Structure formats: structure tokens, C-alpha cells
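Sorry to interrupt, but I need a hand with the structure work. I would like you to pick a protein and set down its sequence and fold. Please put the record directly below this note.
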Amino acid sequence: MGKTILTAKHITKLFPGMKALDDVDFDLQEGEVHILVGENGAGKSTLSKCILGAYQAEEGEIIYQGEPVKFSGTKDALARGIAAVYQENSLVPYLNAAQNIFLNREYRTAAGLLDSKRMEKEAKDLLVSLNCDYINIKKPVKMLSTAEQQMVEIAKALSFKPKIIVFDEPTSSLSDREVESLFEQIHRMKAEGIGIIYVSHRMQEFPLIGDRITVLRDGRKIRTVGINDCTNEELVNMMVGRDVSQVYVRSENPYKEEALRVDNLYDRSGRVQGVSMVVHKGEIVGLAGLVGAGRTETAETIFGIRPMASGEIYVYGKKVQPKNPKQAAKIGIGLVSEDRKTQGLALRQSIAENIEAVSWEKDFPGFFVSGRKVEERALKYKDNLRIMTTSVRKACQYLSGGNQQKVVLGKWLNYDPDILIFDEPTRGIDVGAKMEIYALMDKLATEGKAIIMISSELPEIIGMTDCMYVMHEGRISGKLDRSEYSQERIGQLMMIGQEGE
């Protein structure tokens, strides 16, 4: 690591009804990865946005390259060499990768025409450096996968040749191969002296790239430690402010009744190929597999988002065929989707409206809708789920990722289906919020809900489920009971399918 490139001193940021940052100090050195951690609402994003010029702090100062600065906005910070890659991408969906990377700074020929060939070549070179040469730079980004879009975002940030780059949960939607490529790029950037602020909840990543960790809690800095100076347990305790003796909690299941049966299910796209599985009342069943294995597609077919080609679905012994999510909900199936931004929430609507979104017809069968009752229900879930907000009338787009996820959960808890599918329920949220979601899932199971849990994090799917189906290339490659769990066995089924395939 080199000299200090950025220092934030005594940063205090106020929002109506709350102090988001309270006298926070932070510094970054050249060639350093400084990891920023804390629960949702701890102030990580707020501090990052103060550094990036998106927010102006009420108190404190930022010193960049030895001089006090006050950026007027993110464009000003970017022009000075501070770039950012956010968890949720900001790409223009109808433009291709090259057009997005060079948006508003397009190359032109001597005649003043767009120099598409040069932009495509440089975009391709950037993606090759990230080991993502498989991405079609001429295809509209809306046709790329979430992981591919994230790599385009990273390439766009690197195209500015920044001195500092802020990564906000950059690996939450990436495959193992893409994570490895990103970490190789981060090590290259470190060697070139670029300072990196890395916001993440995935503690297994910290020792692979990090140098120091700063912990925030409730808007205050708790401590900065070297990467090898703190155990994971100590780190979690600092983040949540309480002792964490057991992360995964599973209660005994007294129920035996079969709630959901899927027999030989195919979807029309060919991504789901002959999937069969059984989920009992009060049971949490895992659905594991690599990115692209067909887990989400299976969930979406059961929930009616994807049309079935063939197969059978039974809910408590009755054959059903949901043709859309509304029918699936009426049957008693709910889906907490992986993509909460586009499928789980109406971001511009309030928390209260989102929590009521599935339940309008059930709660208000007539023409009259009681705004007071809608708000009362939302306040109940705000308290029960610990949604950090000043008002349930607040639009969901202003909430942190973890709190948005809790609103999605509140929406389905309010509707109260018998079967719940959780697709990556803890993606991009902090360890404290994860523990709350784990506890909620266990509570729902003890109340008799049948739960399918899809997760790319093996420790949590091993810790939370009663049995597990592993998928490989659209098929079930194996079923494991809890007593048969091992990372090696699961990994084998995920990567190569059954022996002899």
C-alpha cells in the first residue's frame, strides 16, 4: 500500500428524523482494498455517497489527493477519478455494452460520425481483461444475464481509468468464474496503485482481496482493523452489537403432510427439464446449483411466470396448473423473487402499498379501500420485520437492499400463502438482516408453511434446509437428506451431475 489518497474526517449526515452518519472517520490508501461493512442502515451507502458527491455532509470534510474537496455530484467526482460500481446496475437497457460503456463520451470520426468500431474494440478489450470475452457487446444489455450486466458495469467504471473505485456488493449476482475474474482485476488495480472501497457482506471474500476493514453500526464508526486482526465471529459481533452464538436455527418439524409435489416438470424454454420434487408442510427444502442450472426457472414455472410445457404440479394433493402469478397466489403459492427491484417491488410506490400489493382483493373485496387499514398493516410488518424507515409512506426506492427485501417478505406474510419459494432471499444484505430472515423462515416452517429455499451460498442452504435437491443443466442431479450433506458431495452434483452422466 502507498500513501493516503483519501481521508474523510468527522462526517455527519442528517436525513429527516434520523442521523445517518455521526462523526465518522475513514481513510483510503493507494493500492489498498478497504472493506466497509455493517448492517443495513449502518451508514455504508451513505458514507460512500458522501465520498462520491451524491450527498453533501452537514459536518466534516473530505481530503482527496492532499486537498480538501467538495464534489458537486457524482459526475464531478468521476471527472476527478472516483468511480463506482453499484449492486443494482444503471445501464440503459436498449443500448448494447459498447454504447453503455461510452455513453455521453462517444468516440467520433474526423467527419463527426460515431466511431462504433473503436468503441466496440475498446469495450471488447475491457471485457477480455475481465475474462468476459463471451459477452456479446453488440447485444442490447436487457438481453444479457444479471451477471453479464454487472460485468459491463465494472468494465464501464474501469474505462474511466479511476484513481479510486467504490464497489457496492459487486459479486452478489456473479458466478464463481466471474468472481474469480473480478478478484484478479482487483489485484491488478491494487498493483497499479488504485484505491478501492469495497462494500460487501460476504465475509468469505474479505481475506481474498482485503487489507483493512471498517465496521459501521447505527451511523457510527465502531472500529478499523487489519484483515488478519479479527475473526469472523468478532466482526459479526461488532456489526450487530450483540453476541452471535448460532447463525442458522432450525426447529424440529412435527408435520408429515405433503404440501407440494412437482412431477416431471418442463418449461417451454428448455431451461427446466423433467424436474421432480416434494415439499412437506413445515419443511424447508433447498434447491442448489450453479448460476444457470435452472433453479430460478423452476421456481418461476411453479409460480406461473414461465409457461409449462409438460409435467404436473400438486398442492395438498390437488392437481393445479398456474398460468400466471395471480393464479399461483390464489392456489396458495408465493415467490420471494431473486430480483426484488423488478419482480418483487414497485419501487416508486410506498412501503404500505407494496405490502398490500398481493392482498388488495382479499383484504378489500368491495370497492372501498381503507387507507388507514393499509397503513396499520404496514406498520405491523415494519415493527415485526424491523424495517428501518421513518414512515411506511416512504417509496421503496429509497430503502436499503435489506429493507427492500423485508418489504417483499412483508407483502407475502400479509397474503399468507401455504407455500413460499425464497429465491436468493439474502442476496446483497448484511449478516444481521440475514439472521433475521433465517429466524423468520424457521418461524414460518414451525407454523406449517412449506418452503423452498434457493441459494448460491452453500453454508446457508446447508444450515437452513431439511433436505436438498441439486440441479445441473436444468435437471435434478441428486437429492440429499440433511444427514448426507457435505460440500464436496453437493459440489460434485452441482458441477458434473450424477456420476456416469
Remarks:
- The chain has three domains: 4-240, 257-332+418-501, 337-416.
- The first strand starts at residue 4 and ends at 15.
- The chain has a mean pLDDT of 88.
- Residues 17 and 390 are 7 Å apart (CA to CA).
